[in-house]
Specification:
By secondary structure, the chain is of the alpha+beta class. The chain is built from 15 helices and 14 strands. Strands 8, 9, 10, 12 and 14 form a five-stranded antiparallel sheet that branches. The protein has a three-stranded antiparallel sheet with strand order 3-4-5. It has a two-stranded antiparallel sheet with strand order 1-2. A hairpin with a 2-residue loop joins strand 4 and strand 5. Helix 2 packs antiparallel against helix 15, helix 4 packs antiparallel against helix 6 and helix 6 packs across helix 7. It is elongated and about 110 Å long.
Length: 426
């Protein structure tokens, strides 16, 4: 079987013996890479800064799983709001499906945390310390000289520091920045188990970005395999214009001169000219590199570009087919229902249940009483003074405790005795 027909036989980063084949990608540059870099730094700033941002003194985002309290852009969700959160998650899943059907794996190359940290943080440090792909290949496969020891030690020391910083930032999303600062001030012995867990997770991050790398995308991530089901001929993705480029070669009539520059710059090591592949994360590095070659050869840019199979084959670029419209309609309905439910939910949620195992009591003063449990959740950022009254009958409530002042985002639990005057039959 020819070399051109074997690229789908195994993952691109694995040789014929099943061993790891390291990818030494060339440092990318160009207008698409600049745009992706700007977006990545915005997302990185949000990732690091979100735990410290406050709305009326409260965190912008907090995913407190232990206490079953979630704050998303200032809106508080409790365990009682599971239905609303389920709607949000369902809307998000449908959004991912619709977005993939229409724009392919744009998420993977532009917004996925794995890609952002690998390409925009760890890879940039590697380029800075070890140089571009030829120097890194020579360094990795050369003898252990003093230069290699210094460069490798420096790189991995920085990688470890970043991995620990990543873990602590993720931790703040789940416990809040105040709790994190409190843990930092306390001695390690006071939170030894938490410190061990933090170091283990940091070790996993370090291993992923130092050694496992693009194999997360090519071997682990399920989203890459989902695209084979979701994509169709009208999906927009990074595509090679085979109509214009073939037959390829320096002296052929096609625009592709077969320089392999698109392969050299690919972070997963694929050849985009082979068509849609699960390893492609739509990072656009091949677009920038190919456009440089087109400029040198005085040919129009866009031999590799964002386009659909139908767009390349027939020149048709309409993305709104019947399936996309159906997904959009369902998404709009779900998201509208979610917004309505969020805005119309009560600020205070109250649950009153009779204490289990107890029956009503007939008292000597001609009254009937029973014991009830009350739970009140304050979903606002304000302190709310409440009281409980009987509106439809004459009776009395004896509450355990004197006041019902519920602090912001707090839960009030108590018991009370309900007494009614016993009716005397004439």
């Amino acid at each position: 079987m020819s070399e051109e027909l074997t690229f789908r036989d195994r993952p691109i980063n694995m040789n014929e013996k099943g061993a790891r084949k390291w990818v030494y990608a060339k440092k990318p540059s160009g207008k698409w890479y600049t745009r992706r870099t700007i977006l990545s730094w915005i997302l990185l700033l949000f990732f690091v800064g979100a735990p410290f941002i406050r709305i009326n003194g409260h965190p912008l985002i907090l995913l407190d799983i232990a206490n079953r309290k979630f704050i998303i852009f200032g809106a508080i969700f409790w365990a009682q709001d599971t239905f609303i959160l389920a709607l949000l998650m369902l809307s998000f899943v449908l959004f991912v499906v619709l977005f993939t059907v229409t724009f392919g794996r744009l998420w993977c190359g532009w917004a996925c945390p794995q890609t952002i940290f690998l390409e925009m943080v760890f890879r940039k440090i590697e380029f800075l310390i070890e140089g571009d792909y030829k120097k890194r290949y020579k360094l990795d496969n050369g003898p252990w000289t003093s230069e290699k020891i210094i460069k490798k030690s420096s790189k991995h020391a920085i990688f470890i520091v970043i991995a620990v910083a990543m873990t602590n930032t993720f931790l703040m999303w789940f416990i809040g920045s105040e709790k994190w600062l409190q843990l930092i001030r306390e001695p390690i012995s006071s939170n030894l188990s938490g410190f061990i867990v933090m170091m283990i997770i940091s070790g996993i991050f370090y291993w992923i970005y130092s050694f496992f790398r693009e194999q997360i995308c090519t071997m682990v991530c399920l989203y890459g395999r989902m695209q084979g089901v979701l994509l169709d001929s009208k999906s927009i993705m990074v595509s090679y214009d085979y109509v214009r480029g073939e037959p390829r070669g320096a002296k052929s009539t096609g625009d592709c001169i077969d320089c392999h520059q698109c392969v050299s710059v690919c972070p997963t090591g694929i050849d985009i000219r082979n068509g849609t592949q699960l390893e492609c994360i739509n990072c656009t590095a091949c677009i920038d590199q190919c456009n440089k070659i087109m400029k040198i050869t005085e040919k129009p840019p866009g031999l590799i570009r964002f386009d659909s199979e139908e767009g390349i084959k027939n020149g048709h670029k309409t993305t709104w087919n019947a399936r996309n419209k159906a997904y959009s309609a369902v998404l709009v309905i779900l998201f509208s229902f979610f917004i309505y439910t969020l805005l119309s939910r009560p600020a205070v949620e109250t649950t009153i249940l009779r204490t289990p195992g107890l029956l009503f009591q007939e008292n000597a003063d001609n009254t009937i009483s029973n014991l009830y449990n009350i739970k009140i959740v304050n979903k606002t950022h304000d302190k709310i003074p409440l009281e409980i009254r009987i509106l439809s009958h004459k009776g009395e409530i004896k509450m355990a405790g004197s006041t019902m002042d519920i602090k912001d985002q707090a839960m009030f639990e108590s018991t009370f005795i309900l007494l009614f005057r016993k009716r005397i039959k004439k």
